Amino acid sequence: MRLNLAKVPRELKIIFELLKDESVENLVEKGRYLFTKIDWTLFLKLCTHHRVYTMIYPRLKQLPEGMIPSKVIQYLADKYRNNTFKMLFLSAEMEQLSKKLTEDQIRVLFLKGPVIALDLYGDISLRTSSDLDFLVPFEKLERTEELLKSLGYEKDEYIQSVLGDWKWRHHHFTYFHPVKKTKAEVHWRMNPGPGPEPHFDDLWKDRRKSELTTSPIYFLGKEDLFLFLVSHGARHGWSRLRWLTDIQHMMGQDIDWNKLQVLLKKYYFINQGSQALVLASELLNAKVNTDMTHMVENKKSRGLAQEAIFYFERMVNLHTDPVPDDICKYHAKHLFSLMSPKQKILFLLSCVHPLPEDAETLPLPNQLHFLYFPFRPFLWAWRKTKKETRYLRGQKS
Q1: Which of 9, 199, 311, 336 has a CA between 20 and 30 Å from the CA of residue 283?
Q2: Is residue 302 within 8 Å of residue 278, measured between CB atoms?
């Protein structure tokens, strides 16, 4: 049974077609009916929202003159050029950060950005990146922060914590350079917890060296990178199509699929991995080899993939508050459905742990923070009652 795309905008379906690995001749033939009665304004908005304009522009440029409006080509050309400059700048900044950390004996693995643009697409211009994400050993976090501050980076102190829950509830700190306008995310985990993850030493053992810079830059091994990209994309509902094109390109690489399935099962990401394979194969025509077949043909994988179509039916932005209530509710339910039984137990147990909101509701001295555990149900009920009361007052006024 194929995925139901009935509510997906026609313009996004055209983007799916353009992202498929097909010959120019096939694209020209399809273009005779693809590019009729199209809302080009919506098309460009979708290319920008899904961060795929860097891949769409080279494809449209190959088509015969006159098939695509010139203003559309020019808009995409400008976006493509600006992204190329940004990726070159990020590459230089990444090399500087890596050098600085390495000189201080800090092992660093870059998770995204220019290194995976080159690895997956063969050209840093073909993928967008807004920041530099890198992973360091947990015990090196404090020293890493000192080095970043010495380079002019400032920490965004948005994380609040009670009883040290930041260590497992969160996974990175954010730093911003006010002059260079560069953002760096320093990870001590690949994903927010709770839940097991590969140890840094294991990731380091399978690391790869990038060919992008003259100084050594290290990034994740193929199977570890797939695990990271799948967990990251699924956590955000694949609401940016760019994350799925990463999976599409990884599926064409020489990956040890048996090793990967062991990793997916060990760290409870088999549902996310199967979902990604179904979406990439159905929407982008990604190549499915025999080792993946059982992951894309079972009923559960296809059901989870169909749930993700919700995010393609509308331009969902989970990164900018406020996120609409209906989107929040659907996303929370979808993430829970992706969890394995063990993940669900860990998640439910984590809900018992005090939150910063509890400390805001009832401020207590640090030595009495343990009382938030028995008080948590009552504090939650109090906040909920206050919220409903405010809502009712707003309705009356």
Answers
A1: 336
A2: yes
